[in-house]
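Structure ticket #2291
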Amino acid sequence: MKLKRALGLEGGEAVAFVGAGGKTSVMFELAGELTTPVFLTTSTHMGEWQADLADQHHVITSAEELQKIDFNNSKTVLLTGPASADPSILEAIYQHCWTHGYSLLIEADGARQRPIKAPAAYEPVIPPWVDQVVVMAGLGGLGKTLDSDSVHRPEIFARLAGLGLGEEIRAAHLAQVLRSASGGLKGIPEDVSRILFLNQAEGEIPQAQGARLASILDDVFDRVLIGSLQQPHAEGPVSSTHSRTVGIILAAGGSERLGQPKQLLEWRGVPFVRQVVQTALSAGLAPLVVVTGSDRVAVEGALSDLPVKCVPNPDWVDGQSSSMRVGLDSLPVRCDRVMFLLSDQPQVSPLLIRQLIERHNQQRAPITAPMMRERRGNPVLFGKETFEVLQRITGDEGGRAAFNKFKVDTLPWIDDRALLDVDQVSDYDKLIRAYFDFT
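Resolution: structure written out below.
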């Protein structure tokens, strides 16, 4: 996967890079992928800094010099010099990029080419106006001895990780430093997107270590990228991109044709909606939102002992899209992706949900859906780039209206029983026979 897609960038953003394990390399790799002109600079003191990799390199000592430089026909422009650490000059560079729609990539600290680091008291220097902060860490540092050869500022790392100098660095130690407000999260503005890039994932063991770190750090980072700049795949340097998946269960419908609340029909001894919630929880969706409407009291009562958030939709008669909007309005800040599930499909398995998530981890298409016998099914996973469109959908069309506006990546699925849903009594009978009729 290309870095641009993995980071969710469109071009024109300001991104700061901190940490260790390949900051400069990832910045120039990303600059090559972006279609907009790209300015690269630093918020700390820096010298030549691989100047030969840029189309232009200028050492500036004042904001006025920025206006005198001819940037025409240049894809990448590197700005360095002692004044690059001056906030007023950095602000001027940002304003210039923002005005012209250029991308701005900023290296906000140093690591002396070590795979892992801990920040000193005076770093990183992250401007408050950046759109995204990418925290870098090299998986090549795991298994190494904690010393100055493997870690930049090992004494600080040791204190944050609860590890002694000379001891082996394990994934748990790195995770503790990365989630610390004095470590990986240090200096990141409150409302800025936080991305972790675990570089140096060459081989099965580092890949597995990266996946484990992603699972235990998804509560503090909006996305966790795993990849290798040294040994990239043909599709790009990122092998997978992980993030929390919020689950939204649509359970507000009135079940007019059925004549009774389908959310409360029995499946393996429990109501439909309870089964769907239990499946979503076991598959790792978190947090989990249930949108209720018709028969709200009974539906919410069936879930009273489960760790879910029930959100009422007072306009449920307006169709499924109104419930989707209510669910989207309840999402946590900086939610990265959401999966919609239907309360009349209790047969959907945790495996299908996990496979859809893994597929999205690898492809990061705007929409990921299962495909069974050339028919798209449910549940469907939507990336955050689709949220604005989903909020504008009206009527009972649901998420289908977004399929014509975004690329849909499909997961082949052999069990077409997952297509079954319940609108009337005959549908319920068909569903029960499909799973419980062994004659």
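Closing remark: The chain has 13 helices and 21 strands.
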